[in-house]
Every structure is written in C-alpha cells, then in structure tokens.
C-alpha cells in the first residue's frame, strides 16, 4: 500500500470536498492518505511516494490561490521527482476556453519534474458530469489498484 499526499487547489470548496472524499476512500482501501489543503513546498518534497493533485481552475485558467505558491516554488526550484508517482483530478467547465487549465498546468509541471503518472488524469467537466464526487470515487477505485 502507498503513502499518498493529496494536494488540493480550491477556491469555492468543490475540489476540497472531492479531495476529502478521496482521502477517506484511499484510507479505507488500505493506503495512507494525507490531505494538504494549504500545500507547502516542504511538505511535498519530503520524499513523497505518491502525490494526488485535486484542483479546480479559476479566472481565465489560473491555478487556485492556495495552490499557486506551491506551483511557483516547484517551478522555480525544479526538485527531482523521478521517484514520485502521481495522479490528477482536475475540475472545470467546458463552456470556458480555459477548461481545466489549472489541472493541466499542474499535470505538465509534474511531468517536467520527472514524476511518473499513475494511469490517466481525470478531467471532470461540470457541464457534463452531474455528480463530480461519484466520478472521482469511481476513478479512485481504479487508480488506487495501479499503485
């Protein structure tokens, strides 16, 4: 079983709710998941095994304010994440041109740091997915088996 840091980027709380449910589900499945609502550089660079990013997109495609400092520090310092596995749940609204751009930026950064994706990222479109929590729970079930 894996030690998982669940990193949250949320402004209005939807990503936080989903991330909290993911932590509960991952712990029930036998993993050790820790929720980071205000993630810091120090927390995510202490030899993590797995990082699960759950983020919304705000404004014109920006990363939420609580996640932006971490993104900026990771981008500036470029730690070696070649031993880190990661997953991504990105929330967005496809009626906007910048659909899930915050998640896409985090996904790209993880690849740039050398992290290895576990399965495919989950992009939840609020226009097409009536129950985001259910979609995330189904994805977590499959994703966790790959850890």
What does the model show?
This protein has 147 residues and is α/β, with parallel strands linked by helices. The chain has a single domain, classed as Rossmann fold. 37% of the residues lie in helices and 22% in strands. It has five helices and six strands. It has helices at residues 14-28, 41-44, 68-77, 101-112, 132-145; strands at residues 3-9, 32-36, 50-55, 85-92, 116-117, 122-125. Strands 1, 2, 3, 4, 5 and 6 form a six-stranded parallel sheet that branches. Helix 1 packs parallel to helix 5. The longest helix has 15 residues, at 14-28. The model has no long low-confidence stretch (mean pLDDT 96).
Q: What is the tally of beta strands?
A: 6
Stretches with pLDDT under 50, minimum 5 residues: none
Number of helices: 5
CATH architecture: 3-Layer(aba) Sandwich
Class from helix and strand fractions: alpha/beta
Mean pLDDT: 96
- The percentage helix is 25-40%
The largest sheet, given as strand count, sense and whether it forms a barrel, is:
6 strands, parallel
Q: Provide the β-strand percentage band.
A: 15-25%
One letter per element, helices H and strands E, the order comes to: EHEHEHEHEEH
User: How would you sum up the global shape?
Assistant: globular
Output the CATH homologous superfamily: Flavodoxin domain
How far apart lie the N and C ends? 7 Å
C-alpha Rg (nearest Å)? 14 Å
Which fold does the CATH topology refer to?
A: Rossmann fold
Kindly give the count of domains: 1
CATH class: Alpha Beta
